[in-house]
User: What shape does this take?
Amino acid sequence: MIVSVILFVAVAGLYILHFSGNKFNGAGKDDAIEGDASSELKIAYIKVDSLVVNYDFAQEMHDGFTKQQEAYTKEYGEKRNRFESQAAAFQEKVQRGGFLTQERAMQERDRLVGEEQQITRLDQELSSKLAQMQADNNKQLLDSVLNYLKVYNKDKKYSYILNAAEVLLGDETQNITKDILVGLNARYSKEKLK
Assistant: This one.
């Protein structure tokens, strides 16, 4: 308890000294403003969600991912349906006594269990491939945007370019999403023509 009180008093003292020190020694905001222009902080932001929705490269990657996802879903669905049909036929055959021996019924059951395990592995494998494809797409998209921002910022000289998702309130004049989107799409069109 005593240590907590001492720490509280120390922090409060530092707080008071810090802010009152600026008033007494003249070191305040005016010095920072009067500094040379090169130290001026220039900040812009991008609405990344809007950028991704309208960036041609991102759309092409998304379309490719969707096609691959549909192909995997179809492959898995066909195998799953075939298995379920075989399992239902097996169950019906067991109920009507269609197997000549108990051993033959056990062999067929074991085969179906093995096939079901293969289908489960296929599902996991396809899901893993899709997750990897999505991660690769995200990395390519991020690299594309960051590389373009470096080129764009050579002329603009922003100190920071932020993701608007993290900005709670911002001046719309600092929103460079449209400029970046136009530039990205123009660059992508040129690369696509090559």
